[in-house]
Amino acid sequence: MASRSLNKVLLIGNLTRDPELRSTPKGNSVCSFSIATNSTWKDSDGNVQEIAEFHNIVAWNKLAEICAQILKMGMKVYVEGEIRTRSWENKDDGTKHTKTEIRIEDMKVLSPLSRDSSVNADISADSKPELPVVEEAVKDSPAPEEDINSIDDLPF
User: Fold this and answer.
1) Assuming Cys at both sites, which of 41, 64, 67, 130 could form a disulfide with 29, CB separation 3.0 to 4.6 Å?
2) Is the pTM here over 0.85, yes or no?
3) At 93, phi and psi to the nearest 5?
4) Average pLDDT over residues 55-60
């Protein structure tokens, strides 16, 4: 009997930079950004300690386009996905590189969207802003499995 495993990541954090939208050689949209999560605890002397963890996030296809359109540095978001590690070798000097990322399948904006955002352009002052339905967009566009043979094939 094969053993089962689970690769699931749930994070709530703040964007540390604006998202970058790019395209793969096959024309798929890919968006990368990073978020920070914080942990606090009291040490043995009773002093409050805090540490920040930084996570590389990658979204594909329609979700990538939505992330690039509405997310901005500093916004609080919820992301759900899986951990992926990719490796490549630099063509010029043969240096090997690895990068661990969270490949997201779902994203929810937790910060209020600004009134001047193009997403909210038609919302009146007394109405609540509607967030894009990200879950439906994700289910319609699974992340592609492309062959990446060199650093030149990487979209970021």
Assistant:
1) 64
2) no
3) -120, 5
4) 97
